[in-house]
């Protein structure tokens, strides 16, 4: 980019009051572009623009809203190459991940919500006897999904395409208007998404994007009186702060927070499948993903073999330039985050864990790289086993039987997605039902993109994805009449 990115407020591209700051390529440490620093006043203006646009957009026929989302999906697909290159440069994701899992998933999510689903459904008639409320009669009812209003979408840095698309698309489909506050590390992709929606015919004010490194930017987007709901993806600590602000004004919340996914591997498991699934922690976004199976609980009969195979798997992964086709593990998002991940590895050593793979910084001249690291001989009370590291680090804890495995898995502040590997399908499903997690993968780390997504405990509040996202971005209204 030769000049600084502008904010997108009320359908206009606006110069930021706070100037611009550099966006850094995590692989090269070079400047990708210049992101705008909004002032709190500009954020409030974006919220006001969304409020002004809400009435007309919410009354637009669902088919017309769907058509805008469908056109946006096609525009994103048509611009796949430059969009994926920007995503790779901003996040350090490999080229394949940037194309398929970032831009590709974003386009698919806009296409998913371009289909119109019924917004109302009948409630079984009720026979009322005569009384203080009136004569005897049959009461009919409809339950109707109504848009919430203005939604502030605060998005994560690990996927600046799929994450905001998963919020913006269903919110717009339901008739809401949005203010997107992207992560400060990689906001430029979100502005490209706004361009696609503008080109697709989204009216002024329906989509607004404001960015900045100052915490006052996010605070203004959450606290504005024009905002009815906040959808947030990020750390539990920040989510708690947002929830406090929302609670004062009774704003709706959708929170997708941290995770420390337990992967229960039983003696009868297919070890090749388990190793490949757990190994995605090392490679997928370089471990910067809340759904990763970072806490492995291995039954003692298979413990040594699993640790050995995971160590071999980790050591064979190529760490390097994400532009190279054979690179599997790219850099972390920043030097500060790499220092945090490395501090956890050192903490694991001090706590008594054995570093059986990785543990040392790769010999790269530039870039924020960290080696895939495996910590064995862990116990569930170690900080490395309890706290979210958000990097390519896996810890392994042994267990004896099923009861202990379930107890260890549930002994966590988090409960986003857990995993079970076992050749006994009946046991796998039995164990899954006992896990206090919003999702459980049985012999897979794959996802069904229509299944509800969200967490128990400190991993979040609410559910989205598929039809569940339409519920998340709506209020339910009951209309009752005498039959």
TrEMBL record:
Keyword set, alphabetical order: Oxidoreductase
Start and end residues of each Aldehyde dehydrogenase domain: 13-479
InterPro entries recorded: Ald_DH/histidinol_DH, Ald_DH_C, Ald_DH_N, Aldehyde_DH_dom
A GO MF label: oxidoreductase activity, acting on the aldehyde or oxo group of donors, NAD or NADP as acceptor
A Pfam family recorded for this sequence: Aldedh
Keyword Coiled coil appears in the UniProt entry: no
SUPFAM superfamilies (alphabetical): ALDH-like
Family, as annotated: Belongs to the aldehyde dehydrogenase family.
Protein name in the entry: Aldehyde dehydrogenase
